[in-house]
Design brief:
It is built from ten helices and 27 strands. With 593 residues, it is mostly beta strands. It folds into four domains: 103 residues, membrane protein fhac (Ubiquitin-like (UB roll), Roll); 80 residues, membrane protein fhac (Ubiquitin-like (UB roll), Roll), CATH 3.10.20.310; 73 residues, membrane protein fhac (Ubiquitin-like (UB roll)), CATH 3.10.20.310; 310 residues, membrane protein fhac: a member of the omp85/tpsb transporter family (Porin). The strands form five sheets. The protein has a 16-stranded antiparallel sheet. Strands 1-5-2 form a three-stranded mixed sheet. The protein has a three-stranded mixed sheet with strand order 6-8-7, with helices on one face.
């Protein structure tokens, strides 16, 4: 029996030598461009010198073209074929791989003297139609080259491509270059750009055809449109329209197609094809945190109860400290993506170290997207709450009574991040004002203002995370307020090192009763160490209090580990309260913003 052994790559290379091309004297970009123009020469190691020399004229042309493409019009070069010695083919690669070029094979030696490069001089771009000139401002404000930069022909071609693409995206389908010149002055080593662009007549949107659906009415589907027949054509409007359909959560497939080949009288018809998601959906989720312990969430959603796109949602959240069933009915309004009316009902039971509360709620919320993508909610909630403070003696009877209140308010929220899972730069803001009056179906009168913010910024090798909360309440006495509108602190998302909502303003006996005002701050720094793992250090401070004159902040510090898991970030923290020496372990899940 015969056995054939395969050779290792190094042994194969030693038996079958590979010709090499060595380039010296050129900047890195020019070296790479020369290699790209030359490519791999189709000549074996046993090619004789006469055969190799026949390649020299073509090689010289390729080198000149590669140099001129990057602005080196004054470059000179010397090239020759030589026989390689049994020495490292390249000092750096040989040191890392041990490869050598055996003797008997040729090498191509290219020595470059780049000379002074040609640089961009005057850049003149004329849009011949004055009425359309403003539409090209975004392109003209972001030119790929500037005066004084080294000439790169690819940048000039990219500029023309940017102008043409922008014209097509805005409906100038008959646009053309009246003049496009790159004039090179070798005496002054300058290249002048001279472009005249004629947009022509701008096309408009024609008829819009939406594939009919049994589940949703034509009138409802037409509310998604971001333009009307006769509006100026814009690819951005088409993208926004497609995004509207996708964001609505009604459809699993969306195709928005401009029928440019069917355009007539400068009008482009648009075809929209949609397919529906399943009407009903069921979901379940589980998690864990040291604030609430293990938690389970069940959800039922009816995505389109009728052809007007109304929705029904039912939720059940259960944890060791909380029980919260809820039901909501959502009515889309004029803009079905951004405007809606939500009717809700629910019950919430909470048990913490500071209080036990049972609250029934009925409410209505008007949601809209206002300036710069801020989400605005205007709400009215009627709630009936029965609560008691734990471990409070004398005042227990005062707060066991049921409190009925109608709370109205408005809030705004906005989040920006460079990555939704692991942002290295971003922020989140939330602002709310709310209140009740005893003459408007309430047992109490108060006004409350609340704000929270979180900022993430890359700093050195890691991220800096800043978090703050602040609130104030205008009311006669804190004990008149329902537990649900008093402020408590402590826990995973507040002052770590303390139990969930165990901190707050105290009574004369030092018992926590909750406060009218709130102030919390946190500084954290984390560093990615390996894969999806990070380490962190943090300092938290905060508390609630009856009045600003008796503000007493609690502080904690700690370290943690973060794991960017397939289901999102998971945080493991160990924190110590600096005031009472307590040490607590915290586990949290969810995005950073």
């Amino acid at each position: 029996m015969m056995c054939t052994l395969g050779m290792t790559p190094l042994a194969a290379q030693a038996q079958f030598p590979v010709p090499r091309i060595n380039i010296s004297g050129a900047p890195e970009a020019l070296t790479e461009n020369i290699r790209a123009h030359i490519g791999s020469l189709d000549a074996r190691c046993n090619t004789n010198l006469r055969g190799l020399n026949r390649l020299l004229p073509t090689l010289r042309r390729d080198i000149d073209r590669a140099a001129q493409a990057l602005g080196y019009y004054q470059s000179t070069h010397r090239i020759q074929f030589t026989e390689a010695m049994a020495a490292p083919a390249d000092s750096e690669s040989a040191a890392s791989t041990g490869n050598t070029v055996p003797s008997g094979c040729w090498q191509l030696e290219i020595s470059i003297v780049p000379g002074e490069p040609v640089r961009f001089g005057d850049i003149r771009i004329e849009i011949t139609d004055p009425e359309s000139r403003g539409l090209f401002t975004p392109v003209l404000a972001t030119l790929p080259m500037q005066r004084g930069q080294t000439l790169d022909h690819s940048q000039y071609e990219r500029l023309k491509s940017m102008i043409s693409s922008h014209a097509i995206e805005n409906g100038f389908f008959a646009a053309r270059f009246v003049r496009s010149e790159l004039n090179i002055d070798l005496q002054n080593n300058q290249a002048a750009v001279d472009i005249a662009f004629e947009p022509g007549e701008r096309y408009r949107f024609g008829s819009v055809t939406i594939s009919p659906l049994d589940e949703l009415s034509d009138d409802f589907l037409s509310r998604f449109l971001t333009f009307e027949t006769g509006d100026d054509y814009s690819s951005a409007d088409l993208i926004k329209l497609r995004q509207n359909f996708n964001d609505s959560q009604y459809f699993n497939q969306v195709a928005v197609t401009p029928l440019i080949t069917q355009a007539a009288d400068q009008e482009v018809p648009v075809s929209i094809d949609l397919s529906m998601r399943p009407r009903r959906a069921y979901s379940a989720g589980a998690g864990v945190s040291t604030d609430n312990g293990p938690r389970l969430r069940l959800n039922y959603e009816d995505r389109y109860i009728n052809r007007r796109g109304h929705r029904l949602n039912a939720d059940l959240a259960v944890s060791t400290l909380q029980l919260e069933p809820s039901l909501s009915y959502v009515v889309p309004l004029t803009d079905p993506v951004n405007d809606s009316l939500r009717f809700s009902a629910g019950f919430q039971r909470q048990e913490t170290d500071s209080y036990i509360s049972n609250t029934y709620r009925l409410g209505v919320t008007y949601r809209s997207v206002v300036w710069d993508n801020w989400v605005q909610n205007i709400f009215v909630n009627y709630q009936s709450e029965k609560a008691e403070l734990t471990n409070v003696s004398e005042e227990r009877m005062n707060i066991q009574n049921r409190t009925n209140s109608t709370i109205s308010g408005i809030n705004w929220a906005r989040t920006r991040a460079d990555d939704p899972i692991y942002p290295t730069s971003g922020w989140r803001l939330f602002l709310q004002t709310s209140g009740a009056h005893e003459n408007l179906l309430s047992d109490i009168t108060f006004a409350q203002f609340y704000g929270s913010a979180k900022f993430i910024k890359t700093l050195g090798p890691g991220r800096l995370l800043l978090r703050t909360e602040a609130a104030t309440t205008v009311a006669d006495e804190v004990l008149e307020l329902p537990i649900s509108v008093r402020f408590f602190t402590g826990g995973d998302q507040s002052v770590r090192g303390y139990q969930y909502q165990e901190l707050g303003a105290t009574n004369a006996e030092g018992e926590v009763v909750g406060g009218k005002h709130l102030l919390v701050g946190s500084v954290e720094y984390d560093i990615r160490v390996r894969g999806g793992w990070s380490v962190a250090a943090f300092v938290d401070s905060g508390n609630s209090f009856r009045d600003f004159g008796n503000m007493s902040l609690k502080e904690s510090a700690g370290v943690g580990i973060r794991w960017l898991s397939p289901i999102g970030p998971i945080r493991f923290d160990v924190a110590k309260g600096l005031d009472d020496g307590s040490v607590r372990f915290h586990i949290t899940m969810g995005p950073d913003l």
